[in-house]
Specification:
about 70 residues; mainly alpha
């Protein structure tokens, strides 16, 4: 049987490992969030858009005669 001291040490080690994993995961998530926030300049390929709704959603102008989208 394990003594109370060994059980206490295992509990403390388990809590420390959980805290370290939580800190690492938190740092990775916040770094990824900052990267996503920096990607605000999106370049659209207006030539490939063939739908009026999508064209207007990305800020383009729809030419219904040619069925094309322009910037």
């Amino acid at each position: 049987m394990q003594s109370a001291i060994v059980q206490m040490i295992l509990i403390v080690v388990g809590i420390a490992v959980a805290a370290i994993v939580s800190i690492v995961v938190y740092n990775q998530v916040t770094d990824r969030a900052e990267t996503v926030n920096e990607q605000t300049d999106v370049i659209y390929d207006y030539d490939t858009i063939t739908n009026q709704t999508l064209c207007e959603a990305v800020g383009g102008t729809w030419d219904s005669a040619k069925k094309t989208c322009a910037e």
